[in-house]
Specification:
Elements lengths: L4 H28 L5 H7 L6 H12 L2 H12 L10 H22 L7 H7 L1 H33 L4 H19 L1 H27 L7 H4 L18 H14 L4 H8 L4 H30 L22 H9 L2 H39 L5 H22 L3 H28 L5 H17 L17 E3 L2 E3 L4 H25 L22 H8 L7 H23 L1
Antiparallel strand pairs: 1-2
Keywords: Glycoprotein, Ion transport, Membrane, Neurotransmitter biosynthesis, Sodium, Sodium transport, Symport, Transmembrane, Transmembrane helix, Transport
GO molecular function: choline:sodium symporter activity
Organism: Corvus moneduloides
Length: 563
């Protein structure tokens, strides 16, 4: 296959346009930064992002390369079909739930990151532990996006995947470092417009191609493969529900989401942005569904691709760019290639900014350098983005394992972070003991359930667990079960620990997490003297001892103040 010059030019133009937009946005943010907190400008846009800009950047965060390509792939796969495409509805419901329940408590205290309420409720050290799953998730997500883009460029443009990964990573890192959220938001506008126009321009040509059967007929009738509408067999219902709840609830506790709603100019605008972006995510799946349906309705022997089909060659993950390349005219398909690059970068920059913001604000400022200046925190954020971005680019060369690690990290965020965030916001009586116990229980249960993609055998065999070709498959909704058990553990252990200390069943000296607040139980001296006359003479020795202790305590405090 020869180098695809028109496609290369299209992608190059898009990369240049994106970089120029990001640099312009960084210049604009510096111009608007006068008399404003520089780190707040970089992390949450000075809390001044309007609804229009917020809608585009929130939608683009979820509508990434994996979103549009995996949606088309699932529709195309004979064993799946449209009924297994859960992300559009799942993300839409997730954004609606986030806007209705989570926006107000997060904005009411002017939080900067999703980790703030966790550190506030459970302490900095527990917050550091809870920081690990989302950090790994964002880094692996960035790496997976780059790996997907590199594989696509290798197949379609016939250029080295490593070259595509390097150029993409450098572009994203450069404009994100320059302008923070402003650069990410304004480039998201360009990327979303590019994705929408490019895909919709390609679809009519793919639908009327002579090698393609009517998608209305193939939706319910066997043609070149099983109907693309798909079906959900009864024994797979538990897994389907588990994956759906994972998408709906597990998509909430991510900094990429809260960075958008915390950057809005008001709580009302934040909620509106969340609701509208949910509709945007759902709408943006329509082109991918149509392309997947076209792929399932195509006689590939009549195309330049030939036989065997993409499914038989193991290239189902590339079905969207393959449809654009082989079912559309060359001058049309090059616009679709730009759309794939745009979708990849729209999520990559969000993941990079998210990791940098959490590290700089929650780790560097609150733990490592509590007296750091705003400029120092800003440079810590930029340095961490450079390090995490370079690390993710390195991991992208191991594409197969990166995807598996990202899936596992995302499940850990669902099982561990979502119940912790719910308790921190809606059950403030929970404490560090409950948080630590919940983290340990959730982590053990998830790892003991195994992970076939990483060759981790299950220790816990849940109901309906089956052995297929030497690999165990958990059909029980264990991810949601683990999340609920983590939630119950946090609540139960928090209540138990507090009750044990309050009733003096455990000595206060054992309260290493200081959940009782470290408040003194001594009564003020004046109140003791006032009430002494009303007490029984039998208690006089006790009162004398108490007064003596109080005077010694006050004398000690006075001496400390005079030193």
């Amino acid at each position: 296959m020869a180098l695809n010059i028109p496609g290369l030019v299209s992608v190059s133009v898009f990369f240049t346009l994106t970089l120029a937009t990001g640099i312009w946005a960084s210049w604009k943010s510096r111009k608007d930064q006068q008399n404003r907190n520089p780190t707040e400008m970089a992390m949450v846009g000075g809390r001044n992002i309007n609804v229009f800009l917020g809608l585009f950047t929130a939608t683009a965060t979820w509508v990434g390369g994996a979103y549009i390509e995996s949606t088309a792939e699932i529709v195309y796969l004979p064993s799946k079909g449209l009924l297994w495409v859960q992300a559009p509805l799942g993300f839409a419901l997730s954004l609606a739930i986030g806007g209705f329940f989570f926006v107000n408590p997060m904005r009411s205290k002017n939080y900067m990151t999703v980790m703030d309420p966790l550190q506030e409720t459970y302490g900095n050290m527990m917050g550091t532990l809870l920081f690990i799953p989302p950090l790994l998730g964002e880094v692996f997500w960035f790496a997976a996006i780059l790996a997907s883009l590199g594989a696509t460029m290798r197949v379609i443009l016939d250029i080295g995947g490593s070259l595509a990964i390097t150029i993409s990573a450098c572009t994203v890192i450069l404009y994100t470092l320059q302008g923070g959220l402003y650069s990410v938001a304004y480039t998201d506008v360009i990327q979303m417009i590019f994705i929408t126009l490019s895909l919709w321009i390609c679809i009519p040509f793919a639908l009327v191609n002579s090698a393609t059967e009517s998608i209305y007929y193939t939706a319910t009738h066997q043609s070149y493969q099983d109907p693309w509408i798909g079906k959900i067999e009864k024994h797979y219902l538990g897994r389907w529900l588990d994956d759906f709840f994972y998408l709906v609830l597990g998509s909430i506790p991510w900094q990429t989401y809260f960075q958008r709603v915390l950057s809005a100019a008001s709580t009302g605008q934040a909620r509106l942005t969340s609701y509208l972006s949910g509709l945007g995510c759902f709408a943006m799946a329509i082109p991918s569904v149509l392309i997947g349906a076209v792929a399932a309705s195509t006689d590939w022997n009549q195309t330049s691709y030939g036989l065997p089909s993409p499914f038989e060659r193991g290239e189902s993950a590339m079905i969207l760019p393959l449809v654009l390349q082989h079912l559309c005219p060359a001058y049309i398909s090059i616009t679709g290639l730009g759309a794939i690059a745009a979708a990849a970068m729209s999520s990559a920059d969000s993941a990079l900014l998210s990791t940098g913001s959490m590290f700089a604000h929650n780790i560097y400022r609150k733990i490592l350098r509590k007296k750091a200046s705003e400029t120092e925190v800003l440079w810590a954020m930029r340095t961490s983005m450079l390090v995490f971005g370079a690390g993710a680019a390195g991991l992208a060369f191991y594409s197969s394992s990166v995807y598996d690690l990202w899936f596992l990290s995302g499940e850990l965020v669902y099982a561990l972070l979502f119940p912790q965030l719910c308790c921190a916001l809606f059950a403030p009586s929970t404490n560090t003991y409950g948080s630590a116990a919940g983290f340990l229980v959730g982590l053990l249960l998830r790892l003991l359930a195994g992970e076939p993609a990483l060759s981790i055998p299950p220790v816990i065999l849940y109901p309906a667990c089956s052995l297929v070709n030497g690999t165990y498959s958990q059909l029980f909704p264990f991810k949601t079960f683990t999340m609920l058990l983590t939630l119950g553990t946090i609540l139960a252990v928090s209540y138990l620990a507090k009750a044990l200390f309050q009733r003096n069943l455990l000595p206060r000296s054992w309260d290493v997490c200081n959940i009782m607040g470290g408040t003194s139980i001594l009564i003020p001296l004046q109140q003791v003297e006032k009430q002494e006359s009303s007490l029984s003479p039998l208690l006089s020795p006790l009162m004398i001892y108490l007064k003596s202790s109080l005077r010694n305590k006050e004398a000690f405090s006075s001496s400390k103040e005079n030193m």
